[in-house]
Write a structure and sequence with these properties.
It is found in: Cytoplasm. It holds the Pfam family Radical_SAM. Its main location: cytoplasm. The chain is globular and about 60 Å long. Helix 1 runs parallel beside helix 2 and helix 1 crosses helix 10. Helix content is 40%, strand content 21%. It starts with a strand and ends with a helix. A 9-stranded mixed beta sheet has the order 7-8-6-5-4-3-2-1-9, sandwiched between helices. It folds into 2 domains: 249 residues, Aldolase class I (TIM Barrel), CATH 3.20.20; 64 residues, no CATH class. The protein is built from 13 helices and 15 strands. By secondary structure, it is an alpha/beta fold.
């Protein structure tokens, strides 16, 4: 069992992000923390929870919570949930913490910090609406190291409007020089209900498959040359530092979600919490849960999800998930040297790695 906790607060709303988030405004943060802990308690008491292998706090910006609220949240989790030997990851914005807060992260049991840096180019950070600068980003890594953080991830993004290949190379080289344990290199996607999709629709921004391919290859070449293992389409890790939490998602392990908009899947049931912080707090306090969207994940839906996710990994897709795929598609992939079958698993190779989404669609 793995657990995700959604903290929806951000000081500033990034124009590319489609996750449920908002500025704190007049939200009663104390009431929010207590609602999260109430939901955790109700979840734990309503079923016999197995030990939680990984806990991931995302958002939003969990690191912007005050030391008082972070302490109350973590102490409440440890009282309520089976967190013995749990690996804990927290997302953080470089502009939201210094040495004292980083030390608190470690004291509260955080094992891994995932830094939403995105770029080490000032003009690109401004395009993305980020509130930190390149110097703060680099300093945040050093601060976490000095605090004794076990694992550090740096999130980077490419194919951003105005990002040249030279800019991207600078970000990659800077990230490598900081010696993190893990680097995520994501291709910008234009999501619904964001400022970026509006600019794309209006013609202010443009997408280029050539740019995507070139900058993907830059990341692959630079990071693998620095000793990082390319273990998933967008993720690179030093040996043994792969994201345990994400690997569990990809494998289809049951997961719980706490907080507004958080999703859970247990067995064949999936549900999503109300994506409204005030409504979430009210629902938790009145009925003990905020479930709004529930569905049954049947065997075929589960198979399709495994194809979409496991094809992205270097571990590959167990070939029994290919039962039901259109006849001849796998043979064509192998003949075109886009994939191989080894040890009973289908793995994408060469340019097939770049075409993962299109290939997944053909196999379902």
């Amino acid at each position: 069992m793995i657990l995700y906790v959604h903290i929806p607060f951000c000081h500033r709303i990034c124009p590319y992000c489609s996750f449920y988030k908002h500025t704190p405004g007049d939200t009663d943060i104390q009431a929010f923390i207590r609602a999260i802990l109430h939901e955790a308690k109700e979840t734990a008491s309503s079923s016999s929870l197995p030990p939680i292998d990984t806990l991931y706090l995302g958002g939003g910006t969990p690191s912007m919570l005050s030391p008082k609220h972070l302490t109350e949240l973590f102490e409440g989790f440890h009282r309520t949930l089976p967190l013995e030997n749990t690996h804990i990851t927290m997302e953080a914005n470089p502009a939201t913490f210094g040495p004292n807060k980083a030390a608190l992260f470690k004291e509260l049991g955080v094992n891994r910090t995932s830094l939403g840096i995105q770029s080490f180019n000032d003009h690109v950070l401004k395009t993305l609406g980020r509130e930190h600068n390149p110097e703060q980003a680099a300093e945040s890594v050093r601060i976490l190291r000095d605090a004794g953080m076990d694992e550090i991830n740096i999130d980077l993004m490419f194919s951003i409007p105005g990002l040249s290949n030279a800019d991207w190379q600078h970000s990659l080289d800077t990230a490598v020089a900081l010696k993190p344990d893990h680097i995520s290199a994501y291709n910008l996607t234009y999501e619904e209900d964001t400022e970026f999709i509006e600019k794309l629709t209006q013609g202010d921004y443009a997408q280029s498959e050539d740019t995507n391919a070139v900058q993907f290859q830059q990341a692959h070449d630079t990071l693998t040359a620095a000793g990082f293992l390319h273990y998933e389409t967008s993720n690179y890790a030093q040996p043994g530092m792969e994201s345990r939490h994400n690997q569990s998602y990809w494998q289809g392990i049951d997961y719980l979600g706490l907080g507004p908009s958080a999703v859970a899947t247990v067995g064949d049931r999936r549900w999503r919490n109300l994506p409204d912080t005030a409504g979430y707090i009210h629902a938790i306090n009145t009925v003990g849960h905020a479930k709004r969207e529930e569905e049954i994940i049947d065997a075929e839906a589960y198979r399709i999800e495994r194809i979409a996710l496991l094809l992205r990994t270097t571990e590959g897709l167990p070939d029994h998930y290919l039962e039901g795929s259109p006849e001849g598609e796998v043979d064509t992939l192998i003949e075109n040297e886009l994939a191989e079958i080894k040890d009973g698993k289908l793995r994408l190779i060469n340019t097939g790695i770049l075409l993962v989404d299109a290939i997944a669609e053909k196999l379902v």
